[in-house]
Amino acid sequence: MKLFKSSLLALALASATTANAESIAITNATVHTVTEQGVLTNATVVIDDGKITAINPENVTADVVVNAEGKVLTPGLIGSMNQLGLVEVSAVSRSRDASDKKADITFDPSSAFNPRSSAIAYTRKGGITSNIVAPRGGESIFKGLAFVADLSGEFDSIVSNGNAVIVDLGAQSKGSRAMSLQKLYRELEDAQKKLAKAEKDKKSDDDKADEKEPKRDEAIINALLAGEQTLVAYADRATDLLALIDMKAKFNLDLVVAGAGDAVLIADKLAKAEVPVVMSAMSNLPSSFDTLHQSLNNAAILTNAGVKVLLTVSGDTHNLYQLRFDAGNAVANGMTKAQALAAVTANVADTFDINGGRIAVGKRADLVLWSSDPFELSTKVEQMWINGKLYTTESRHDALRERYMAKSDMPRAYTK
Fold first, then answer.
1. What is the DSSP string of 281-300?
2. Which domain holds residue 255?
3. Residue 403 above 90 pLDDT?
4. SS3 content of the chain, % helix, strand, coil (to 5)
5. Which CATH number covers residue 161?
6. How confident is the model over 129-158, as pLDDT tens digits?
7. What is the tally of structural domains in the chain?
8. What stretches of 56-170 adopt beta strand conformation (E)?
9. Helix, strand or coil for residue 176?
10. C-alpha distances in angstroms, 408 versus 397, 399, 400, 401?
11. What 3-state DSSP class applies to 381?
């Protein structure tokens, strides 16, 4: 697959594994900024030292100039709530590192992240430059801690750890959903009371006891109560979502709900409480009694009600490539293109505190140049920059295609 049209671009790719020394100017682009500036035509974006340093400068000065020829430039898309890099083959237990029977709120799977997973290079084909990786945990309602990784494939591609605490609520195959909600509420309430008592004792002249260092799980719960840590709660039924909204108000939580199959029933309440929703645009049929109101137009309904929607792809790792197609289906069912693009870029960046998701000065230079409208099936990624470096979209799939389509006297299955 021929990705580049000039020797300058080939040179840029060759330098992708070296120090980020060259500045790059992308000129004559149709830039979807995902900011108040909207869409800029015949625009120039300058990248230096991994950041966007200028947009439409008076004088273009850069080591490498890329002529976009009017094509679409967007922020790199951001995946979320999947196990990319933790699961290689779902059916092979020894290639799965996203869960553990003993996992609890302290479970941090980032040390098991494999940046060289074959699924990562394949995912880049979908214009995805970074991802929120979420654990599946174990028997506890607390599944562990999510982290952010870019899709460069480099060994230093983990951007940040502990970006969110993942909790799984809702319907239970054994027992009652009430126990899960109760456990979460009591964990927060007990920690809140303990913190209040510690603060009271600290101010008391009668008690001079030394403060004890909180345990790891206590420190994470305390961070949730301080609003310093995001809580992502998987729940679908409207009553569960209402219970979570009440907890957000009582405990000052930075709350995000995921799944949210029946969220449209309480869209106004989610919007008022400023609770973002992570959802699939393709969930159009009930998968349980908790999701009787799933529909292809739910993303548009929630967005138009004022809810910040983050689009994700159902599954664990191998379908994330399809994120832009799912966003395109959301457009076909009521979302505007600007809303859909924000749902896979800026909304994700804002929710998980990532310095990206927009084309603006100071933002991380994760950019994608598309052959046409990124939500169209026939559109391809022409060029991709992650942290200001140019990366190829070639994957193991391409290598296999070339291997088995090469002309040879040997039987096709044995072609070298």
1. TT--S-SSTT-TT--TTHHH
2. 78-355
3. no
4. 30, 25, 45
5. 3.20.20.140
6. 999 999 999 999 999 999 999 999 999 999
7. 2
8. 64-67, 72-75, 77-82, 128-133, 142-150, 158-168
9. coil
10. 20, 16, 15, 14
11. strand
